[in-house]
Amino acid sequence: MKPRLAVLLMGLLLGLSADAQSGNLTVPASIEAGAPFSIQCAGSGKATLYIAGPGQFMKRDVRLGEVASFPAGSLGNAGRYTVFLSSPSLNETGSLAVLPADKPADLTFIAKPSRLPVALQGGITGAAYVFDSYGNLITKPQSVSFELSNPVSTTQTHVVETRNGAAWTQMDSSPHEGKVQFVARVGDVSSTRIVNLVPGDPCSLRMNAKSAGGKIQLQTDPVRDCSGNAVPDGTIVTFTESYNDTRSTVDVPLKRGVASIEMPAHRGATISVASGVVLGNQIRWEQ
Amino acid sequence: MNLLKSLTLASALGGAVAAFAADQPVVRIEPPTLQGPRELQPQTAKAVIQDYLESWKVLGGAFSQNQPDLLGHGFIGAAQDKLAATIKQQQLDGVHSLYRDKSHDVRILFYSPDGLSIELTDAVQYDVQLFDHDKAIGTEQVHATYIVVLTPTEVRWRVRIFQAQPESMAVPRI
Q1: CATH class for the region spanning A106-198
Q2: pLDDT tier for residue A22 given thresholds of 50, 70 and 90
Q3: Bridge partners for B153 per DSSP
Q4: Hey, what CATH topology would domain A202-285 get?
């Protein structure tokens, strides 16, 4: 009885659930991943012990009547294991559950998208899975902190409890363009993603016109989005001149924040400016 | 294609039991209890569950033949690595095992907002039979609840996390 008592005491010391006994085989019902454990094989003579699961396999020769001890790290993969004890005179089975450790050691974090316009409500999503040091998904609830920050905006923080090892969040993109850090943190483990916030569509568009010899010199004011960020160079601005029944259209990319072009000067011509779906002001040329 | 038809039937009946041929597992598909903002289209759910069930066949084949290379059709990442390591250890020890899934009770739990992972739980019954140098060691009927995460790959969903947990930790059934 002494070895059996030793197994039970060892299990209690490790904070594990009670052993399950099946005939000659006494197996702890569950252990934490990587924890040491013991299996008692009653009887006499030699036998072979197999611990089989899809996640891991072990085979060991044992002497019946002794305790088979497995050191820390022997079974690291969480899952359900079947224990087979085989000798010429007996065949017995038991089961053993290996549970993920409670302490997070790794985090899989996916943030989407990596580039989006500023000031978009719920535009950024993050999903995280939490793992222990053996790469097991920790299914007990864990608090995951999601933080979105850049140097000029207030930090958005969402704390989310994992369900079945997974947590997710949605964040608003800040009004300021630039790179922001999106961090997922659980315990002392964190993972960072960089999200690039780009200006949105032009918010208002205004052009000025002046005479340049026989032509009209047209130039926009600096083009900005609704949060005041400069719209990137290369964005197309369209100038349209209507005169009698003719219409001339010119697409001009922004350079240094403005678009400029010369168009033929016709007295009575109407000139408009647009970028994407945003319409700017209209000028009637009377000179 | 029988599998696909049965799954179609099961989803059409909203959680009915799909009975397969004698050697096929019985599959029950629970209505999803989704967390997350992303809507799960029925076609996606069907494809995920079909590919997941197929992965059990892949697992069974790989273990019975001790061929870790076969795992790639159904598994990827950590799940594939762990299963492959198990098979390699069995090879070293002169052992092989037969895994025969008999029933599944599947529920989709989480569709990540980016669409790159789907988590499901499966209360599965399977037999595991162990052979040491072709000598039968024993057979055990196993009831376990698996937490599974699948990710989309080129043409199918593959299992990235494949982890059994005790019944006491299983996701409650509604």
Answers
A1: mainly beta
A2: low
A3: none
A4: Immunoglobulin-like (2.60.40)
Span(s) in chain A for CATH 2.60.40.10: 2-99, 106-198, 202-285
CA A144 to chain centre: 11
Q: Do B142 and A136 touch (CB under 8 A)?
A: no
Give the gap in angstroms from C-alpha B51 to the nearest C-alpha of chain A: 18
Q: Do B140 and A57 touch (CB under 8 A)?
A: no
pTM: 0.82
Each residue of A102-152: pLDDT tens digit? 999 999 999 999 999 998 999 999 999 999 999 999 999 999 999 999 887
| Helix B2-12 with B42-65: angle, nearest 10 deg | 140
CA atoms within 13 A on the CB side of B162: 27
User: CATH code for B2-167?
Assistant: 3.10.450.240
Asked if B20 and B6 touch (Cβ cutoff 8 Å), the reply is: yes
Identify the CATH assignment for A2-99 out of 2.60.40.10, 1.10.10.10, 3.40.50.300, 2.60.40.1930: 2.60.40.10
Is B138's CB within 8 Å of A77's CB? no
Q: Among B37, B63, B161, whose Cβ lies nearest the Cβ of A137?
A: B161
Three-state DSSP class for B161? strand
Q: Is B35 on the interface with A (CB under 8 A)?
A: yes
Whether ipTM tops 0.85, in short, is: yes
Contact check, Cβ <8 Å, A97/B86:
no
